[in-house]
Amino acid sequence: MNRAFNRKKDKSWMHTPEALAKHFIAYNAKFLGNTEVDQPKGTEVVRDAVRKLKFQRHIKKSEGQKIPKVELQISIYGVKILDPKSKEVQYNCQLHRISFCADDKTDKRIFTFICKDSESNKHLCYVFDSEKCAEEITLTIGQAFDLAYKKFLESGGKDVETRKQIGGLQKRIQDLEAENSELKKHLQVLEEQLMIAQVPPGNSMSSKTPTDIFDMVPFSPMTPLVPLPASNGSAPPPPARPTEIRRDLFGAEPFDPFTCGAADFPPDIQSKLDEMQEGFKMGLTVEGTVFSLDPLEGRC
């Protein structure tokens, strides 16, 4: 690196002032990348940066990665690095932040400049590869500096400060647009989760009868027992009583006080029962004391 641009009054520039002041000059080049440097200027500084980026690019090339192509738009406002197809701005290096620019005489394809990053305030060295235009690009950046400096003197420094504020506002707008896009994505995700969480009508959980751990409906004394329908849809028949009467171990039939009538007892037992009923009608004897069941007779 043996050339750095400077503002010489007798320098013959390549472009008209109107081209850089009202428009821009575009160049195509390969972008080797950028790297942080310790100093804002210096031939040795950019030489080390170029050596470092060339080594990194050599490794990427061995892995099959090609050097990306970019478009440079140079004007009195700065150097923009764009994607040549989509025209998307990848880097916007404002001119007042560029502190050094040079081309390599040992390798005429390489040119570089150092720019101070607006967010981190670090000095970054940008390195490019152009087969035929390395020196011309360096001189064009120098001419843009010369025109910007003259305009700065004519405006008393107000123009530069205004453009700094505009650059800051543009950066703020880009950040807000990115933040707005992220919020829209987050809102869309929340709406999708809400739609999934909603229960469709008719399938409310409140209408479902709770079950126990065995998936059985708990018994409630307030709930009437309804016989389940048969498999064919008709009501099940009532349970039939067994025709065979079960007997106890002595061979006697079990006594059922709710089903037996007066004619069910044997004659001797029936006579005893009749006598007991007559006795209750006449009165009740307890240890020699007679109580009449007739309330009019009183106690004897």
Topology pattern, helix = H, strand = E: EHEHEEEEEEHHHEE
Low-confidence stretches: 1-10, 285-293
Compute the separation of the termini in Å: 147 Å
Q: Describe the global form.
A: rod-shaped
Number of strands: 10
Counting DSSP H or I runs of 4 or more residues, the number of helices is: 5
| Biggest sheet statistics | 8 strands, antiparallel
Strand content: 15-25%
Mean pLDDT: 76
Description:
With 300 residues, the chain is of the alpha+beta class. It is 34% helix and 20% strand. It has five helices and ten strands, in the order βαβαββββββαααββ. It has helices spanning 17-21, 43-62, 134-155, 158-197, 267-282, and strands spanning 3-4, 25-37, 69-75, 78-82, 89-94, 98-103, 110-116, 123-129, 284-286, 289-291.
Spell out the key features of this protein.
alpha+beta; eight-stranded antiparallel beta sheet; rod-shaped
